[in-house]
């Protein structure tokens, strides 16, 4: 059954990197509603980045099914999963994966190339979003490698939002932002997501970040594999 109200639906998921090590994730059932924001806490090595890679369709389950926004992504081939991700999912990687020699704006416009929208309005949208996350204008033309980690995080979030995704997956880097910046940044991010009815799974080892979210869950409660770090 395809449930259009569900951003994420996991059924009988099992995932292992190689058959000698055993599964690192076993999740019988998990749902995230459309427009819902979830904080998923887990210790280092507990499988947070692996779960996000599965939800983004960058990895496929060893067994089981993952449905994202009504599409059974675990059954798509690589090309279709890449296309589905570009059109529907924003991903903020733990290491950001910005292209170091491209400017801030070009990093975002490159991602926009894979989306649905075309034309000059995209550049305006990129600038609007960069201003929303309080990145100074004089940084827009700078190489992304010249930016601080906190500034790179803002660029990575804007890149993930440029194609108006209905699901945002955020892998929190360790201590990217100080407390004061984190407060304003997370409130702002949640505000932008509300306006766009975008669902989000935000993963971190840091329990403290959970206070910004009304929905919190521990990966160890969800995951029945032996990988309880
Ligand atoms: N490409 C890979 N090949 C084999 N094993 C891997 C690979 N990537 C991760 N693992 C293993 O899978 C487990 C989960 O790793 P993962 O990166 O998902 O954890 P994490 O919760 O994101 O950790 P952190 O908070 O440190 O980022 C770890 O034991 C890790 O060593
Ligand atoms: Mg990780």
Task: Outline the fold blueprint.
Elements (H helix, E strand, L loop, with lengths): L5 E10 L9 E9 L3 E5 L6 H8 L7 E6 L2 E2 L5 H11 E4 L11 H9 L8 H12 L16 H13 L5 E5 L7 H17 L3 E6 L10 E4 H4 L7
Parallel strand pairs: 3-8, 3-9, 6-7, 7-8
Antiparallel strand pairs: 1-2, 1-4, 4-5
Helix pairs in contact: 3-4, 3-5
What does this structure look like?
This protein is an alpha/beta fold and 229 residues long. The protein has one domain: 3-Layer(aba) Sandwich (Rossmann fold). It is built from 7 helices and 9 strands, in the order E-E-E-H-E-E-H-E-H-H-H-E-H-E-E-H. The strands form 2 sheets. The protein has a 5-stranded parallel beta sheet, sandwiched between helices. Strands 2-1-4-5 form a 4-stranded antiparallel beta sheet, covered by helices on one side. Helix 3 packs parallel to helix 5. The radius of gyration is 17 Å and the shape is globular. The chain binds adenosine-5'-triphosphate (ATP) and magnesium ion. Adenosine-5'-triphosphate binds next to helix 1. The site of magnesium ion (MG) has 4 residues, from helix 1.
């Amino acid at each position: 059954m395809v449930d259009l109200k569900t951003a994420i639906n996991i059924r009988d998921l099992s995932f292992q990197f190689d058959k000698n090590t055993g599964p690192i994730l076993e999740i019988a059932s998990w749902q995230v509603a459309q427009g819902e924001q979830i904080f998923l806490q887990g210790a280092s090595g507990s499988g947070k980045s692996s779960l996000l890679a599965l939800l983004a369709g960058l990895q496929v389950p060893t067994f089981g099914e993952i449905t994202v926004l009504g599409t059974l992504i675990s059954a798509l081939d690589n090309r279709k999963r890449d296309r589905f991700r570009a059109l529907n999912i924003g991903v903020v990687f733990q290491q950001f994966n910005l292209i170091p020699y491209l400017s801030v704006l070009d990093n975002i416009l490159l991602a926009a190339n894979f989306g649905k929208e075309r034309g000059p309005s995209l550049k305006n949208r990129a600038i609007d979003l960069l201003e929303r996350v309080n990145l100074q204008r004089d940084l827009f033309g700078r190489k992304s490698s010249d930016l601080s980690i906190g500034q790179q995080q803002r660029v990575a979030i804007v890149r993930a939002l440029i194609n108006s995704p209905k699901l945002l997956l955020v892998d929190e880097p360790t201590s990217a932002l100080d407390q004061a910046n984190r407060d304003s940044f997370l409130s702002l991010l949640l505000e932008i997501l509300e306006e766009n009815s975008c669902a989000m799974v935000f993963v971190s080892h840091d329990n403290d970040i959970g206070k910004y979210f009304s929905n919190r869950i521990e990966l160890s409660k969800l995951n029945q594999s032996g990988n309880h770090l």
